[in-house]
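General statements about sequence and structure are easier to judge against a single worked case. In the encoding step, the backbone of a single protein was reduced to a row of integers, each denoting a local shape. The record that follows shows the chain in one-letter code together with its fold in token form.
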Amino acid sequence: MSKTLYDKLWEKHEVCQREDGTSLLYIDRHLIHEVTSPQAFEGLKLAGRKPWRISANIATPDHNVPTTERAEGINGIKDEVAKLQVLTLDANCEENKIPQFDILDKRQGIVHVVGPEQGLTLPGMTIVCGDSHTSTHGALATLSMGIGTSEVEHVLATQCLKTTKLKNMRVTIDGELKEGVTPKDVTLAVIGKIGTAGGTGYAIEYAGSVIENMSIEGRMTVCNMSIEAGARVGLVAYDETTELYVKNKPYAPKDNLWLKATKQWRQLTSHKDAVFDQEVKIDGSSIAPQVTWGTSPEMVCDIDGLIPEASDESTQYALKYMNLKPGTKITDITLDQIFIGSCTNSRIEDLREAANILKGKKIADSIKRAIVVPGSGMVSQQAEEEGLDKIFIESGFEWRSPGCSMCLAMNPDQLGDGEHCASTSNRNFEGRQGYGGRTHLVSPSTAAAAAIEGCFVDVRSYK
């Protein structure tokens, strides 16, 4: 029987199916951070339970950690609630013997950056985390999804997840991307086409020549924002690019285990005649650099586009919140802050992309603040070895320490009321980056070019 990649991964991990249609799914890797785990550990303690399989869990703080004064460790966290969450993670990991990349570990970083770069994310795995953007890991042919706090407790206690199987959607993007068009533009274009509810109830497999020609880091950007299209799961088939990325990672199999693993991993593709419940096709050559203008990722258009007419109540409200008028050119939107980072775009390729635009240039005087936040200590180290930090600093950017940072403003990195920001993050919801903040989602190169100009500019001509 022909199967999709999602079907194969599901069947390998399904423990049992109940009469109500729900299933127990075995979880290979559980990633933990400081925000969604305290209540789960407390629940375990109250019930007198211990984690069932300690080696399957690994933790790192990312949401609340400061991106400045990192050398001070815990004492660098000024907000008492944030500090308590990080201290609680430390205590829970110590008590339960769960390994952690703590705030002073050079491997610390955003959990969705750390997992793949350390080889904790391996093809064929089921992976969960108390964070919606766990779909990122699907770029390595895994079944990965975000879970809630009660589910975090359940996975800790049983190494299983109660869930329901999703339908299959394939998004095929063929053709060749134009120069200046990036994976971030691709995923925004997909969301613009199918909407933020288009993937609801589906696992999205991304396919086609555009995806095949992407690096794993690019595929992670695409899979990361599957949740913004309404899907809980995004994934890409295993290929040689996957294999080369995983090889020699710290936690990857070695020697004979590597040979055995890769033999199995090469089966992690959909059968050629597999039937998907829904098919979406996009011509990659038609995709332009994208910019969101509203308060939802689906409110997006080409860089050379215009703010649309307020045809419905949600659009009217979004335009009012963003203080934008229909017919305004995207390139006429002036900016106050620039943020390069988040689990979507904080990897080394993202930083290289932005630095390539900024090299030898200065950001506009009108930009109040521009920050770049590497996704992990390892990304930061590599960027510094390549001299990227100097390019950012010389252009006027602030070079920060790893963390989620301004993506969700759970630390001091926030927008002011009414400020517009070109952000490489994944959500432009009202107040997401700070009370009254106005977020425009873009690629690293578009963010860098916007920093120089003080407004949006078509990076294809800018180069």
